[in-house]
Amino acid sequence: MHPPEPLPRRGPLSRLRASMIEQLRDKLADELAQVDWRDLRQHAARGALFIVSGDLGLLEATLGIARDDRAAVETWLQSGALARPTDAQLSAWESELDKPFEYLIAQPFVLARALPIADAQ
User: Fold this and answer.
1) Who contacts 62 (Cβ-Cβ below 8 Å, separation ≥6)?
2) How confident is the model at residue 6 (pLDDT cuts 50, 70, 90)?
3) Does residue 80 lie within any of the structural domains?
4) Residue 104 domain flag
5) For 67, how many CA atoms within 13 A lie in the half-sphere containing its CB?
6) Angle at the Cα of 27 (from 65 to 31), degrees rounded to 5?
7) Cα angle value 7/22/11 (rounded, 5°)
8) In a domain, 73, yes or no
9) Domain of 58?
10) Which of 39, 64, 67, 108 is least buried, going by the fewest C-beta atoms within 10 A?
11) Looking at residue 98, what is its pLDDT?
12) Burial category of 90 from C-beta neighbours within 10 Å (exposed 0-12, middle 13-18, buried 19 and up)
């Protein structure tokens, strides 16, 4: 009796999974939108808002959460690239309700990145 052959690394299941991830990435890219702080504050109040900063892309972070990529999310949380807003940020944004953000939703979370006023459209 021969030992079983190893499964191919890029078999049909891997290709299907990659295709599903690309579809999710495309869906999220289409949903990327801008919003003012006044519309995000309710999500911060319920503890569902995360701020994306640094080199971490908003789409990448949202995709990681949607895919439940715990290792990546933990790395981002530890580095501060993904974090709940600080009290100082919340206070500053409350005095600037028109502050623009780009955002995406990965239920039950809302991920956002603050935009400079000049970048707002």
Assistant:
1) 28, 104, 105, 106, 111
2) low
3) yes
4) yes
5) 19
6) 85
7) 10
8) yes
9) 34-119
10) 108
11) 94
12) middle
Enter the tokens of residue 41. 């504050």
Cβ contact 71:112 at 8 Å: no
Cis peptide upstream of residue 108 (ω within 30 degrees of 0): yes
* HSE of 80, CA atoms in CB hemisphere, 13 A: 2
Reference 84, options 52, 57, 120; nearest CA is 52
The total domain count for the chain is: 1
Answer yes or no: is 85 within a domain.
yes
Residues 6+ apart with CB under 8 A from 115: 34, 100, 101, 102
Whether 7 shows a pLDDT value over 80: the answer reads no
pLDDT digit string, tens, across residues 11-61 = 565 666 777 778 878 888 888 999 999 999 999 999 999 999 989 999 999
- pLDDT at res. 20: 79
Using an 8 Å Cβ cutoff, are 31 and 75 in contact? Answer: no
